[in-house]
Design brief:
The complex is a heterodimer of chains A (about 300) and B (about 375).
Chain A: H1 2-32, H2 39-56, H3 61-88, H4 93-115, E1 131-133, E2 136-138, H5 140-162, H6 164-174, H7 176-181, H8 186-212, H9 219-233, H10 238-259, H11 264-278, H12 287-292
Antiparallel strand pairs in A: 1-2
Chain B: H1 2-25, E1 31-37, H2 44-63, E2 72-78, H3 83-95, E3 102-103, H4 108-121, E4 125-127, E5 144-146, H5 151-165, E6 169-175, H6 178-190, E7 197-204, H7 212-220, E8 225-229, H8 233-245, E9 251-253, H9 260-266, E10 274-278, H10 293-307, H11 312-332, H12 336-346, E11 350-351, E12 356-357, E13 372-378, E14 381-384
Helix pairs in contact in B: 2-11, 3-4, 5-6, 8-9, 11-12
The chains are: A mainly alpha (about 300), B alpha/beta (about 375).
Chain lengths: ~300, ~375
């Protein structure tokens, strides 16, 4: 029982990050139908910039946090304005996805130049002993990560359902042309989606760095896993990304625990393939929507 | 035509001055040595301190008058952590630069790729990588040497210490890279010799973020100690997880643990972690009469003053490789075969950064478990265990 609990906690920790990256994929996907493969890089930017402001420049926590999120937002904004916007008119989705790969390599290069190849970390948000829960141990930072992820999900839900801008973004994801006819500025919505996904990624990075350290090239792995989470839950469904992220994280942890840690990536991905065979639209995806997709 | 003539004249003058300059600065032909390091790419954490070390040493040697009055020139090539690039670099160094010996490469894979080329070119190679296959079987490695300690020596040092502590059951957790694979193999193969049984054999990927699951399993399997074998962020994450789980059994790390950076990153979680480390990282804790102390002090302080970072064990491997060749050149002159013979037979009780080398026709590494000290982390610093 204790073992199972511990494996579940471990899976939750990794799963939250996958979920946050997956949500970022979905937000951009919904407004543009492209997969932003630089999503993992936003997580790295979050972790490393937080270190830079907090430890490097010795700024207070709240200031560092705001500056980090601002940096991520600016990167997201520049990325969209400089590369995606000019290409969006041509409508070549594959080309735009290639561009996001190029940008991920560029960001990685800049981060390596600035921070070098060493991993970085800073103290957890609250100091204190790990919490013992029926014999299984959970660190306080893990609780922070889970709490912050939950908060992000709630805020995003409110934003997309209760605010005008959020509804406009949803309208774009349903039908760009109709949205434009309704007077929605689609170009601004696309920009906003990049900014939000950058901030979501950075929040993930800020929260997990005290647990897992952060180095310049961690983004690629996170992009792959986050993408899996998004696909598994049904691409475009934020609820799906959360479910997918947790499922993937827990599957990995259970495989490592009960089968062998050497197989954990393989088994988790095999199960993902299996889910997609049975339900190609993902756990929460609808087959009808998938048929209408361009990509 | 007049213009052409003028240009020709200027060209001649330029040519004359450049040849003058070059003949002036090198009154004698320099000794040429090649170096191949993974300066960029995934193994750059090895190649960078190695390159820096060589640049610094060459400057120091030439400032002190070179070798027997001849300047030393080391041509450094970047292998980009890639075996093909390493082979190309070696061919260039051998054919174009006509070097007397090559030091490096930084990784085991690249070193193995160079074995046939160096053997064919009959030129000594002093590798800075650790893999045992680089110098074994020694009969087929006539021209090949290495300065990094064997992984098996590090394992031997750990098991020796565990035997003294009465530890009989261990759980191992290794990273899925070449370093982790080699360590895992050595840990499993050597355990029975020390009466140790491995009760759990766990693994993790180089970019994994949480190893709690693996450690929980190790504890549940009834291990009396955990051994982690990795370099990079993984060893810090394992340390943090080990601390958070309050496992109640000691954590041992590999010889890759020896960087102050790890202590910074792991913070108080690192307290009590034990590892076999080369004396380079604990030089200031050695007794004054230890044969390695003086050279380690000079190397580490010079390096830190110049590059504002620690050289690490890896920079030391390049130091040893270069200094062996330099000493051979000093004694036998620019002859490839004689350099090789000198290193094989005359490098005895030779203090380097990695340990006290004893090369022989049957051992082209010359280091054993005595190259390591068992070191524990106490109050954020290293402390040598007796």
């Amino acid at each position: 029982m204790t073992l199972l609990l511990q494996f579940l906690f471990s899976g939750l920790t990794t799963g939250t990050v996958y979920a946050l990256v997956g949500i970022g994929f979905n937000i951009v996907y919904n407004s543009t139908s492209i997969i932003n493969l630089a999503q993992g890089e936003f997580v790295v930017i979050g972790g490393l910039m937080m270190w830079f402001f907090l430890e490097g420049m010795q700024l207070p926590f709240a200031v560092s946090l705001s500056l980090t999120l601002l940096t991520a937002a600016v990167v997201g904004l520049l990325m969209e304005r400089l590369t995606i916007k000019p290409l969006l008119k041509k409508g070549d989705l594959l080309l735009m996805i290639m561009v996001t790969i190029a940008i991920s390599i560029l960001i990685r290069g800049i981060l390596m130049f600035k921070f070098g190849k060493d991993p970085y970390t800073y103290p957890p948000f609250t100091e204190g002993e790990p919490i013992n829960f029926y014999g299984a141990v959970i660190t306080q930072q893990t609780l922070w990560v889970i709490g912050i992820t939950a908060l992000c999900i709630v805020l995003l839900y409110l934003f997309f359902n209760k605010t005008m801008t959020g509804r406009a973004m949803r309208a774009c994801s349903l039908d760009v042309k109709a949205a434009r006819l309704m007077g929605i500025n689609v170009s601004n919505i696309v920009m906003l989606s990049f900014i939000i996904s950058a901030i979501i990624g950075a929040i993930g990075g800020i929260a997990i760095t005290p647990i897992s350290l952060m180095e310049y090239d961690k983004g690629a792995m996170l992009s792959v896993k986050g993408f899996c989470a998004a696909i598994m839950g049904g691409l475009g469904r934020s609820r799906g990304a959360v479910a997918g992220g947790f499922t993937l994280g827990i599957l990995e942890s259970l495989t490592a625990g009960y089968i062998h840690s050497g197989f954990k990536d393989a088994v988790a991905l095999l199960i993902m393939l299996f889910i997609l065979f049975v339900k190609p639209a993902g756990i929460f995806g609808k087959a009808e929507i998938v048929r209408l997709r361009k990509f | 035509m007049k213009v052409m003539g003028k240009f020709f004249l200027i060209f001649l003058i330029l040519l004359a001055t450049t040849t003058l300059i070059s003949t002036n600065s090198y009154s004698k032909e320099p000794y040429k040595i090649g170096a191949i390091f993974s300066v960029t790419g995934p193994a750059s954490f090895l190649g960078e301190p190695e390159k820096n070390t060589v640049l610094m040493l060459v400057e120091q040697i030439n400032k002190a008058g070179g070798i027997n009055g001849r300047p030393l020139e080391v041509i450094i090539e970047d292998s980009k952590s890639d075996e093909t690039q390493a082979v190309l670099a070696a061919k260039k160094l051998l054919e174009k630069d006509k070097v007397l010996a090559i030091i490096g490469p930084s990784t085991t894979g690249e070193s193995m790729a160079l074995v046939p080329i160096m053997t064919q070119a009959q030129t000594p190679l002093i590798s800075a990588a650790a893999g045992a296959n680089i110098t074994q079987p020694v009969k087929e490695r006539y021209w090949i040497f290495k300065t990094a300690q064997y992984d098996t020596s590090a394992v031997e040092a750990i098991y020796n210490y565990m035997k003294k502590q009465g530890i009989k059951k261990v759980g191992i957790i290794t990273i899925t890279t070449g370093f982790g694979d080699a360590g895992r193999k050595a840990l499993i193969e050597m355990a029975p010799k020390f009466g140790i049984s491995i009760v759990a054999d766990e693994r993790y990927g180089p970019k994994d973020t949480d190893m709690t699951t693996q450690l929980t399993k190790i504890k549940a399997a009834g291990a009396q100690a955990v051994i982690n074998w990795s370099v990079g962020p993984g060893q810090v994450i394992v340390t943090k997880n080990w601390h958070a789980l309050k496992m109640g059994i000691p954590l041992y790390q590999s010889h890759g643990w020896g960087s102050k950076k790890n202590l910074e990153l792991a913070g108080k979680a690192a307290e009590g972690v034990i590892a076999p480390l080369g004396r380079l990282v604990v030089w200031d804790k050695l007794p004054d009469k230890h044969p390695q102390k003086a050279l380690l002090k000079k190397y580490v302080t010079d390096y830190e003053a110049r590059y504002k970072s620690e050289p690490g064990t890896f920079g030391g491997h390049a130091y040893d490789a270069l200094m062996m060749v330099v000493e051979a050149l000093k004694n036998v002159g620019p002859d490839k075969k004689k350099i090789r013979d000198y290193i094989e037979t005359k490098i005895k009780k030779w203090p380097g950064t990695g340990g006290i080398f004893n090369m022989s026709p049957t051992d082209h590494c010359g280091l054993d478990a005595s190259a390591f000290e068992m070191v524990i982390v106490k109050n954020g610093d290293w402390e040598i265990l007796k």
